[in-house]
């Protein structure tokens, strides 16, 4: 799986997950991938769409809920993982632990759907599409 961590989550989360899954998956923060973090959503969505097969971890739920961002996100074949509002407020180590718990589900979705938006909730082993 290729996972981009968006600007609203810290680079250390991407580095930690990237180190943990070094040989199996690519996990990179947007600032590292593009050399800067101030790209518009439209720009980085299009760039990832051109590369293909990217997933995105972001707390910016507007991408999943508002047009035209949602339409562009899905049309570009991206899979988004969005922490629920309560999960997005958790300390970073707790969020990282939750992501590790859900990692098999994230990978499964990345391999079985062509695009979509999924919520990372505080409990359960499944992600809810929205």
Explain how this protein is built.
The structure is a single chain. By secondary structure, this protein is an alpha/beta fold. It has one domain. The chain contains 7 helices and 6 strands; from the N terminus they run βαβααβααβααββ. The protein has a 6-stranded mixed beta sheet with strand order 2-1-3-4-5-6, with helices on both faces. Strand 5 and strand 6 form a beta hairpin. Helix 3 packs parallel to helix 5. The longest helix is centred in the C-terminal third of the chain and has 21 residues. It is globular and about 30 Å long. The two termini are 21 Å apart. The relative contact order is 0.17. The model has no long low-confidence stretch (mean pLDDT 96). This is VapC45 PIN like domain-containing protein. It comes from Novosphingobium fluoreni.
Q: What general form does the structure show?
A: globular
Strand content: 15-25%
Count up the helices. 7
Mean pLDDT: 96
Give start-end ranges of low-pLDDT stretches: none
Terminal CA distance: 21 Å
Number of domains: 1
Query: Percent range for helical residues?
Result: 40-55%
H/E order of the elements? EHEHHEHHEHHEE
What is the CA-based Rg, rounded?
13 Å
Number of strands: 6
The computed structural class is alpha/beta
Spatial strand order of the main sheet: 2-1-3-4-5-6
The main sheet comes to: 6 strands, mixed
Protein name: VapC45 PIN like domain-containing protein
Organism: Novosphingobium fluoreni
Domain VapC45 PIN like: 1-82
Pfam families: PIN_10
């Amino acid at each position: 799986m290729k996972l981009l961590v968006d600007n609203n989550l810290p680079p250390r989360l991407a580095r930690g997950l990237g180190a943990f899954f070094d040989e199996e998956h690519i996990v990179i923060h947007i600032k590292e991938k593009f050399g800067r973090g101030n790209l518009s959503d439209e720009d980085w969505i299009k760039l990832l769409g051109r590369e293909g097969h990217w997933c995105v971890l972001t707390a910016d739920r507007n991408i999943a809920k508002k047009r035209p961002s949602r339409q562009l996100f899905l049309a570009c074949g991206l899979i988004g993982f969005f922490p629920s509002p309560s999960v997005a407020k958790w300390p970073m180590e707790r969020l990282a632990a939750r992501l590790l718990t859900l990692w098999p589900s994230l990978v499964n979705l990345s391999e079985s759907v062509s695009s979509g938006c999924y919520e990372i909730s505080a409990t359960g082993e499944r992600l809810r599409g929205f």
